[in-house]
Amino acid sequence: MADLxxxxxxxxLALALGCGGGGTPEASSADVVQLVENGAILLDVxxxxxxxxxxxxxxxxxxxxxxxxxxxxxxxxxSVVVYCRxxxxxxTAAGVLRERGFEVTDLGPMSAWPRQDEIVR
Length: 121
Description:
This protein has helices at 2-5, 7-16, 29-37, 48-53, 67-70, 88-99; strands at 41-44, 55-56, 60-61, 80-84, 104-109, 119-120. The chain is α/β, with parallel strands linked by helices. The strands form two sheets. Strands 3-1-4-5 form a four-stranded parallel β-sheet, with helices on both faces.
C-alpha cells in the first residue's frame, strides 16, 4: 500500500485508521524478552537524539521517518520487536514492516520493556 500511496499518505492513513497503537503492546513483556533472546531484532524507531538519551541495550536505531529508505538494513529472516516513546511510531513502523513481509511484535513504548536495568543512558 505504501508503494501506491507514498510514505506520507500511508502514515496519515495508518494514523487515521487508528493504527497508531498509542502504546498498546501486542505481547506480554515476558514474550518480547523471549523473542529478543531467541534472536529477534530489537528496533528503536525514535530519533537519533532520543536514542542517544536512552535505549534498550542491543537495540538498533532506525527512525520511523527513515524506515522505508533503510529497510534493507534489516534481516527479513528474523522477527522484529519494535518500540518508540509512546507507541504511536512503533505501531506505524510495525505496519510498514508487516507490509514488507517481516514478522513484527510492537512493544509500544520503551517504558514497557520489562528489564529497565537494560536501559542504556
